[in-house]
Design brief:
This protein has a single domain, classed as OB fold (Dihydrolipoamide Acetyltransferase, E2P). It is built from 2 helices and 7 strands. The protein is globular. The chain is mainly β. The protein has a 5-stranded mixed β-barrel with strand order 1-3-4-6-5.
Amino acid sequence: MNALRNRVTLIGNLGQDPEVKTTETGKKVSHFTLATHDGFKNNDGQKISETTWHNIVAWNGLAELAEKYLRKGKQVMVDGRIVYRSYEDKKGVTKYITEIVLSDLLFLNDGRESSGKEIVKDTAVKESTRSSRKKDEE
């Protein structure tokens, strides 16, 4: 049972360009949304397509990769853990948010934007920060 842990893997398309910020302590953090698609046939035999949106957070090296290579529409595979948090908005209303904090990022499409410009030479680039993840959370 030691293999059971908080882990999620998703394949989808970016819904927006990553928003990258630097924290007061100098760490980079990137936020973007990821759309995953699922399809099925209903009782009438019609094909139904559903899109689910996920909030993605990347830290340090992964945030830099996201800033440099990811753009709206790009297909990626993300691996990370689910984090639930809450905050109060300006009106004092408690808001709840679910995020995927990345540990791995894999670029799936050919690395070309719609303009045809090459943004990476490899068809897949993988960056792992498993060993540095604990440092980011401190």
